[in-house]
Amino acid sequence: MFEVVENTAKSIDLLIAACDERRYLVDYGVDNHRSCVANFEEILKPYEISRNMFPDPVNVFQKTKIEPDGKLMQQACPTKPGDYMVQRALMDVIGAVSACPMDLNPIGGSKVTDILVRIYEP
Protein backbone atom coordinates (compact mmCIF):
# COMPACT_ATOMS: atom_id res chain seq x y z
CA MET A 1 0.00 0.00 0.00
CA PHE A 2 2.91 2.35 0.74
CA GLU A 3 6.49 2.72 -0.39
CA VAL A 4 8.98 4.25 2.04
CA VAL A 5 10.76 6.94 0.04
CA GLU A 6 12.87 8.50 2.79
CA ASN A 7 13.32 7.67 6.47
CA THR A 8 15.44 9.30 9.16
CA ALA A 9 13.61 7.45 11.97
CA LYS A 10 16.03 5.10 13.72
CA SER A 11 13.31 2.71 14.76
CA ILE A 12 9.99 1.41 13.50
CA ASP A 13 7.98 -0.94 15.68
CA LEU A 14 5.57 -3.56 14.33
CA LEU A 15 5.19 -5.51 17.59
CA ILE A 16 3.05 -3.32 19.84
CA ALA A 17 -0.65 -2.92 19.15
CA ALA A 18 -2.26 0.51 19.36
CA CYS A 19 -2.97 1.46 22.97
CA ASP A 20 -6.57 1.56 24.12
CA GLU A 21 -8.50 2.21 27.32
CA ARG A 22 -8.02 -1.38 28.51
CA ARG A 23 -4.25 -1.14 28.21
CA TYR A 24 -4.13 1.95 30.42
CA LEU A 25 -6.46 0.38 32.98
CA VAL A 26 -4.81 -3.06 33.16
CA ASP A 27 -1.16 -2.02 32.84
CA TYR A 28 -1.24 1.30 34.71
CA GLY A 29 -4.48 1.45 36.72
CA VAL A 30 -5.44 4.63 34.86
CA ASP A 31 -8.98 5.35 33.69
CA ASN A 32 -10.03 7.85 30.99
CA HIS A 33 -6.57 8.25 29.42
CA ARG A 34 -6.39 9.30 25.77
CA SER A 35 -5.30 6.44 23.48
CA CYS A 36 -4.29 5.82 19.88
CA VAL A 37 -7.41 3.72 19.36
CA ALA A 38 -9.60 6.61 20.59
CA ASN A 39 -7.73 8.97 18.25
CA PHE A 40 -8.28 6.60 15.31
CA GLU A 41 -11.95 6.09 16.18
CA GLU A 42 -12.54 9.81 16.28
CA ILE A 43 -10.95 10.59 12.93
CA LEU A 44 -12.25 7.50 11.08
CA LYS A 45 -15.87 7.71 12.28
CA PRO A 46 -17.04 9.76 9.24
CA TYR A 47 -15.80 6.90 7.02
CA GLU A 48 -17.73 4.32 9.09
CA ILE A 49 -14.47 2.59 10.02
CA SER A 50 -14.64 1.21 13.55
CA ARG A 51 -11.99 -0.23 15.89
CA ASN A 52 -12.76 -3.82 14.93
CA MET A 53 -11.63 -2.90 11.41
CA PHE A 54 -8.30 -1.30 12.41
CA PRO A 55 -5.17 -3.13 11.27
CA ASP A 56 -2.21 -3.31 13.63
CA PRO A 57 -0.24 -0.07 13.45
CA VAL A 58 3.14 0.73 12.01
CA ASN A 59 4.67 2.54 14.97
CA VAL A 60 7.08 5.00 13.45
CA PHE A 61 9.37 6.52 16.11
CA GLN A 62 8.82 3.66 18.58
CA LYS A 63 11.26 0.98 19.70
CA THR A 64 10.57 -2.42 21.24
CA LYS A 65 13.21 -4.94 22.25
CA ILE A 66 12.54 -8.68 22.44
CA GLU A 67 14.21 -10.12 25.54
CA PRO A 68 15.76 -13.65 25.46
CA ASP A 69 12.71 -14.95 27.36
CA GLY A 70 10.40 -13.53 24.65
CA LYS A 71 9.15 -10.61 26.76
CA LEU A 72 8.61 -7.34 24.89
CA MET A 73 10.33 -4.33 26.43
CA GLN A 74 9.22 -0.90 25.26
CA GLN A 75 12.15 1.48 25.07
CA ALA A 76 12.67 5.15 24.42
CA CYS A 77 13.14 5.64 20.70
CA PRO A 78 16.44 7.13 19.51
CA THR A 79 14.71 9.59 17.17
CA LYS A 80 15.01 13.30 17.70
CA PRO A 81 12.87 16.33 16.79
CA GLY A 82 12.92 16.80 13.03
CA ASP A 83 13.25 13.10 12.16
CA TYR A 84 10.75 12.02 9.56
CA MET A 85 9.46 9.37 7.19
CA VAL A 86 8.22 10.05 3.66
CA GLN A 87 5.87 7.44 2.19
CA ARG A 88 4.27 7.20 -1.23
CA ALA A 89 0.76 5.76 -1.36
CA LEU A 90 0.64 3.13 -4.09
CA MET A 91 -3.17 3.14 -4.15
CA ASP A 92 -6.02 5.25 -2.82
CA VAL A 93 -6.10 4.96 0.98
CA ILE A 94 -7.98 6.21 3.99
CA GLY A 95 -5.42 6.51 6.74
CA ALA A 96 -5.11 7.75 10.27
CA VAL A 97 -2.11 8.94 12.24
CA SER A 98 -1.90 9.34 16.00
CA ALA A 99 0.75 11.10 18.04
CA CYS A 100 1.19 8.44 20.70
CA PRO A 101 -0.45 9.69 23.92
CA MET A 102 1.56 7.23 26.06
CA ASP A 103 3.19 9.17 28.89
CA LEU A 104 3.45 6.35 31.43
CA ASN A 105 6.37 4.35 30.02
CA PRO A 106 9.59 5.10 28.11
CA ILE A 107 8.18 4.36 24.64
CA GLY A 108 7.43 8.04 24.00
CA GLY A 109 10.14 9.41 26.27
CA SER A 110 7.52 9.47 29.08
CA LYS A 111 5.94 12.55 27.52
CA VAL A 112 3.51 13.29 24.72
CA THR A 113 4.83 15.29 21.77
CA ASP A 114 3.15 16.63 18.66
CA ILE A 115 3.80 15.29 15.18
CA LEU A 116 3.45 17.05 11.86
CA VAL A 117 1.77 15.22 8.99
CA ARG A 118 1.94 16.60 5.46
CA ILE A 119 0.03 15.16 2.52
CA TYR A 120 1.37 15.98 -0.92
CA GLU A 121 -0.78 15.60 -4.01
CA PRO A 122 0.93 14.35 -7.20
How would you describe this structure to a colleague?
Helices cover 14% and strands 19% of the residues. A hairpin with a 5-residue loop joins strand 4 and strand 5. It is globular, with a radius of gyration of 15 Å. Strands 1-6 form a two-stranded antiparallel ribbon. A two-stranded antiparallel ribbon has the order 2-3. It has 122 residues and is α+β, with helices and mostly antiparallel strands. It has 2 helices and 6 strands.
Shape: globular
Strand order in space, largest sheet: 1-6
Chain-averaged pLDDT: 89
Share of helix, binned: 10-25%
User: Which residues sit in consecutive blocks of at least 5 with pLDDT less than 50?
Assistant: none
Q: Compute the gyration radius: what is it?
A: 15 Å
Tally of individual helices = 2
Largest β-sheet summary: 2 strands, antiparallel
Structural class by sheet pairing and helices: alpha+beta
Number of strands: 6
Spatial gap, N to C terminus:
16 Å
Strand content: 15-25%
Order of helices and strands: EEHHEEEE
List the helices and strands and how they pair.
Blueprint: E1 2-7, E2 12-13, H1 21-28, H2 36-44, E3 59-60, E4 63-66, E5 72-75, E6 85-89
How do you describe this structure in short?
The chain has 122 residues and is an alpha+beta fold. Helices cover 14% and strands 19% of the residues.
